[in-house]
Structure formats: C-alpha cells, structure tokens
Amino acid sequence: MNMGVKRGFVDAHTHLFAPEIVRDRSGHLARDAWFGELYASPKIILVTPEDLIASMDEAGIQTSIVCGWPWRDMGLCREHNAFLAEVRREYPGRIAWLAIVNPASPEAPAEIERAVAQGAVGVGELNADAQGFSWERPGELENAMEACLHLEIPLLMHCSEPVGHAYPGKGTATPEKILRFIEVNPELRVVAAHWGGGLPFYELMPEVARLTANVVYDSAASTYLYGFDVFPVVERLIGNGRAMFGTDFPLLKQRVFLDRVLRSGLSESSMPALLGGTATDVFRLGQEAATT
Ligand SMILES: [Zn+2]
Hints:
The protein is α/β, with parallel strands linked by helices and 292 residues long. It has helices at residues 3-7, 19-23, 26-31, 33-39, 49-59, 74-90, 108-117, 128-131, 142-151, 175-184, 199-202, 206-211, 222-225, 230-238, 254-262, 271-282, and strands at 10-15, 63-67, 95-99, 122-126, 155-157, 190-192, 215-218, 243-244.
C-alpha cells in the first residue's frame, strides 16, 4: 500500500449519536423501540465525534461516512440530522454524513432536501423493521425515493441474512425483499449494507445481476457475519468497484478491521476502490453542499 492510497481511506459505514444520548441513553431507550432493543445493554458502546476522529487517526482513515440512526419518529430523525450536520461542520473532509428520515412519512422528501442543503451525501441507514415500513410496498416510499433521484443521492439500506444466527438488530430485510424494491427503483443508487444480506451470492444468476446494476455493497459488521474470505470471494462474484469498506464503528474497531481486510487475500489492485475510491464516487465526496 503506498501512502497516497492510504490517505484516501474511507470508512463507508459508522454511527454517532448526539452528546446527550452518549452521556445518558436511558431516556431514549423508551422513545424508540429499535434503539431500545439494541442499546439497552451498557456493553454496547456509544461514542463521541472526538472518539471517532481519534480512531480514524489511529487507523489511517481519512473520511468516515456517518449514518443516521433509523428512528421511527420524524422528530428524532430531524434532531439526528441537525447533529450530524454540525459534526461535519466541525470536521470538514473527515466526516461525511447520511440523512435519516422515515421514508414512509409525508415529511420525508422535504427533510431529505433540507439535509442535502446542509451537506448530507445520501440517505440512510434506512431500516424497514426499525421504522415500520416494508421494502415490498415501494409505493409507500415513492415520494422519498423521488427526492433521492432528483437530488442524485444514494440510499443506504440495512439488509439481513435470511439464514444463519440471530442477533440483535438483524431484522428481516432479506435479499428477495430488497430485489423487489430495486426492481421498481432501477434508477436509484442503492448501497446494500452488511453485504446486502448475501445478495452478491445471487448475482451469479443473470436476472439478478441485471437488477443490481446500480447496487453497491458495504462490509459493515462483517466480522460478526462472515469469514474475511468474503472480501476476495465477493469481488470475484461482482467485480471490482462495487464493494465498500465499512466497519459499523463503534461496533467494530476500525484499525483491527482494516488490518484484517488488508490480509484478506483481496488483490492489491482491488484495494483502492474498496478502501475509498468507490465510496468517493458513490457519495460524491468533496462535492457536498458547503455550509457554514
Ligand atoms: Zn445496519
């Protein structure tokens, strides 16, 4: 790895919460069922922007994409967006962020537009189970998807494996549901988180590969789901430039995860796209609205 590449590393999937939630999450556990389920245990840590930047410096990561949390309530979504816009103002070039909305809410399109004007580079991490909508009823999401298309921003969706072990936050957004959504939104740029719940493996089927032409995948939480062979294996299935390094920090440590990716057997020539090039293109990093 030369240093020029290293400076451009991007972690495409991280999470931050507002300082009052990091200090004391107890009030929020009852305000949102999904947050309550995932963060009831004090062992599941929440971090500050300073913690994230320190971790990035340690790992040699230039930019982290911070995802919004999938609040069901639009008021909580708006608060989260205001917080992330502020963090990015504090750390320009180091932090990029995704706006969170409940995509089934009539208020979603206006909030997406407002967030993009505040520098958001996409929408997500949307989560059907957490937010009470269904990827299989895309009609309910039409207006929010229209806003993404119009603003030319990608949508990051939480995906779930249809098989394997159960874990908090897994959900039921499995590949067949995601495909049904993609089928009616072929123009939309979609980032399917957590390796798309295994969707890349079905890309060996030509009709699936046709539908997923606009889909890229991230590796968030990979350590909990797959062996690190998943990096070279998925690259062989879908080609270079369609997967992004993402950790799900603070769930996984950036430096440890990155070291394991570098030793995963993925070819040297594929590393620049995986570790930053694809994220820079997909989120058009560096071109977001400048706000002061
Ligand atoms: Zn997720």
